[in-house]
């Protein structure tokens, strides 16, 4: 007979855990996708109103504080979008997605790890938090000269700038989540004989997860926010590069197209991160109340 800790018994357990996570992911996505028809109608109507008002203001060349005379209309943006997708668009989309995902992945690892350590250990917070707090408000565009000097190639500099966009929201959210752990739960764990590692693993980390999840979603959006700044460096491909090149050549419809593409991909990736964090926190159920 094989012992319970043998490889044969641990492998099915790992498979069961992965199957459970996948089932929770699909169940949560299915439940969230069941939108009330009235809510769906309002969401579609909001898009119709947005593009309709935009088209109307461009058609009448509205000028009152905001000038719509030179702003591309939705019809012109649609024409630029069709032209873009007819000329090998995956070269630009793939380049941008890879830069954002790589910078975001590095930010997740470093932001969560460093945030947990700073939030849990007072001495480490005293040593490293102040320099990080000084660097945090610096905008991504200000990092371009240093990125050129610090990294051996432009690609590394672009990944670094997308990393900067995601790192600080994840770091701060993790620190606040760890520091906001309920003291009552900590004392209960200590009274029950839990060691420091058990308290940290079973109370602090689960308690900080909602705050960490918020930082992950915000960090993903910020990575896309910094994409144009990153691809100004020396990119030859990418949605941000295409947007900046269109601005330099005064070709305005592709500028708006690039902005909308970045917004669309950023919202989709943020939604994916949000759904994944819900899977990792099955105990956290949130539901908005309907207004009367």
UniProtKB/TrEMBL annotation:
Stated family: Belongs to the binding-protein-dependent transport system permease family.
Localization (cell): Cell membrane
Keyword Zinc: no
Highest taxon listed in the record's lineage: Bacteria
Topology within the bilayer: Multi-pass membrane protein
SUPFAM superfamilies reported for this sequence: MetI-like
PANTHER family: ABC TRANSPORTER PERMEASE PROTEIN MJ0413-RELATED (PTHR30151:SF0), ALKANE SULFONATE ABC TRANSPORTER-RELATED, MEMBRANE SUBUNIT (PTHR30151)
Phylogenetic placement of the source organism: Bacteria, Bacillati, Cyanobacteriota, Cyanophyceae, Leptolyngbyales
Protein name (database record): ABC transporter permease protein
Biological process according to GO: transmembrane transport
Domain ABC transmembrane type-1, residue spans: 93-273
One Pfam family it belongs to: BPD_transp_1
Transmembrane helix found in the keyword field: yes
Primary location class: membrane
């Amino acid at each position: 007979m094989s012992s319970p800790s043998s490889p044969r018994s641990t492998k099915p357990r790992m498979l069961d855990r992965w199957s459970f996570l996948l089932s929770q992911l699909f169940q949560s996505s299915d439940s969230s996708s069941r939108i009330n028809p009235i809510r769906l109608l309002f969401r579609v109507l909001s898009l119709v109103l947005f593009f309709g008002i935009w088209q109307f203001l461009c058609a009448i060349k509205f000028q009152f504080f905001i000038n719509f005379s030179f702003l591309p209309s939705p019809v012109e943006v649609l024409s630029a979008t069709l032209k873009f997708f007819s000329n090998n668009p995956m070269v630009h989309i793939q380049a941008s997605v890879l830069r954002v995902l790589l910078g975001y992945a590095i930010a997740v690892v470093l932001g969560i790890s460093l945030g947990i350590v700073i939030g849990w250990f007072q001495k480490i917070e005293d040593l490293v938090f102040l320099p990080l707090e000084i660097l945090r408000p610096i905008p991504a565009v200000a990092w371009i000269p240093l990125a050129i000097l610090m990294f051996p190639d432009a690609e590394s500099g672009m990944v670094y700038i997308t990393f900067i966009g995601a790192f600080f929201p994840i770091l701060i959210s993790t620190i606040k989540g760890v520091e906001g752990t309920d003291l009552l739960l900590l004392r209960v764990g200590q009274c029950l004989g839990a060691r420091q590692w058990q308290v940290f693993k079973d109370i602090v980390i689960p308690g900080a997860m909602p705050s960490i999840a918020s930082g992950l979603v915000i960090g993903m959006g910020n990575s896309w926010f910094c994409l144009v700044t990153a691809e100004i460096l020396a990119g030859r491909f990418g949605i941000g590069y295409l947007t900046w090149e269109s601005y330099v050549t005064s070709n305005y419809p592709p500028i708006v197209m690039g902005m909308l593409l970045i917004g669309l991909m950023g919202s989709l990736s943020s939604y994916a991160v949000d759904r994944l964090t819900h899977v990792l926190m099955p105990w956290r159920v949130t539901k908005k109340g309907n207004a009367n």
